[in-house]
């Protein structure tokens, strides 16, 4: 196909989730013609990759997409799945983006004369700028050992889990204790299922402390606005696992030790299946202690904030373990345990193979500074810790989108030589 005859846009946004539509909102405000391309339908992941009892883990007041702040009756509550979908549907209606749904981007390649050729399942386009808004959670991670498990055992990834009723009767093994794993384990536990949980190194935090939601305290303390460059771990913080907590039933802690007292069986990290036994690390006690250390450490930081600012609040407290493993079990006979299903909650890996640009590190993750890459005209939005802890939340993705669009608008008003210098400076 003659590249000069394909439809051209100053900006093509790949991905129609909240990040892509936030970008569309700001592009429209700048008067920049653009196209949003979405593989499925806008916001589809919130509907198709969340379980029935899913709810936000951050208070509703933090939902502040561009031009669309939360306006419901419960700002300190936690929206459930149907409320989230309604909120996002209303956001899409406000943005009214120029979007093509059900279209897959197959390849993005630089053009010799500048800009990019975007090959899709619906034909080719060209663009001066490409904004990657497809997130970083593309391929569900399931270990190779899953192939060796008996075929009678049902296996689903967290993205496929909906409710306890979809799984066959019998005990369920949940692998992973990050936000999804801990909440799915709780969902099954509350449904009366026997649960085995393989616990990883995820930290945890309190839901409420000293009279307020912990998120509210941390927001006041500036934690969600701290740029990645100022974090002690720098870019390494992007590899951190989120703290497990829940907004279910008005919000509460997730205490795995309490679950153990109630009959949930906790194990260390699942390492192998030897044909008969599931093999676990003997790290359970350490993992629980480390999670509690983070929990108490966050609360201690809140204590200091309260003291330094003379804030009136209920007295401080320290979490004390309500259960400890008497003896860790490194091996579990799969047949004898009766486990009928496994829910894999060990995350996703990114897949940006369709983007032909030198903007990735050795692990396949984008290299950028607040979404601006060293490749002129290539941007990312919607990644965890794109700029700050808040970048992956409804409250801050709009600010990141505004930053990127301002950069694009500046490029659009500059000559080629100036644009080259601006792109190099931004990626430094």
From TrEMBL:
What UniProt keywords are attached to this protein's entry? Oxidoreductase
Tell me the GO molecular function terms: flavin adenine dinucleotide binding; monooxygenase activity
Q: Which InterPro entries match?
A: Auxin_biosynth/cation_transpt, CHP04046_FMN-dependent, FAD/NAD-bd_sf
Q: Which Pfam families match?
A: Pyr_redox_3
Q: Which PANTHER family match?
A: FLAVIN-BINDING MONOOXYGENASE-LIKE PROTEIN (AFU_ORTHOLOGUE AFUA_4G09220), FLAVIN-CONTAINING MONOOXYGENASE
Protein name in UniProt:
FAD-dependent oxidoreductase
